[in-house]
TrEMBL record:
Name of the protein: Glycerophosphoryl diester phosphodiesterase membrane domain-containing protein
Entry keyword Membrane: yes
The entry's keywords: Membrane, Transmembrane, Transmembrane helix
Transmembrane among keywords: yes
Transmembrane regions: 34-62, 74-102, 123-142, 186-204, 216-237
Amino acid sequence: MEIQQPFSQVKPTPKLLGIGQLFKKTLQVFKKRIWVFIGIMIIPILAVMVFLLLFTFGLALLGRIFLWSSGSRLILILSFFVALIVITVSLLWPQLAILYAVKEREIKIGAKEALRKGWPKILSLYWITLLSTIVIGLGSLLLFIPGLIFWVWFSLADPILVAEDIKGWKALLRSKKLVKGNWWQVFFRLIPIAIISLGIQFLFESVFSKTSYGIFFSYLLVIPWFFFVLTFIFLLYENLKELEGKEAEENTSQ
């Protein structure tokens, strides 16, 4: 009688997706969530437009009332800081909402829910952005290479804030930990994104920014690309998180 030997099914080891696979997956998510992304952008844009309209009207009114006295100058300075805060919020809030829309794509949350989830984390994202900008900037001042290393290390801090609710410096360290052992692989997946972004910026500054319709056309390029980059970064984070989980599982089973 032939005795069958028991066998165990070997699960495939997850690997970091290639750049082509990552672009393809990003495009798939992008196409499925595009209307949610557009909804996310419309609400803050309308809010900023209304604010700027009221802000301009208010300045004109103050100019007529105070004739640019010392009191009106103080109000002008305060108004400038208020405008700066509103513009900063209008940039960070949609970014968080898009990351939430990608994170919870399986349950298909809408634009309103994504914006609601992102609102409490605006200050945390600002702090992470400020910290990473300072560290990367200082690294670049010393030599180009340290700045590049920091850029790759901290590239996943924003998705980590959304997915793991880790804030501040801890989010940067968590990002570094995820990238550890895969620095070159992450670098070669980020560099095409950086090159395309620089190309779009070059077109904006050298061609489109010279005319009013050119500026409008440039936004038609920049906004969808902004959606794509955030989706790409979050999917890269998910892939690295999956690898980390598999490695931890293998270590505990040994």
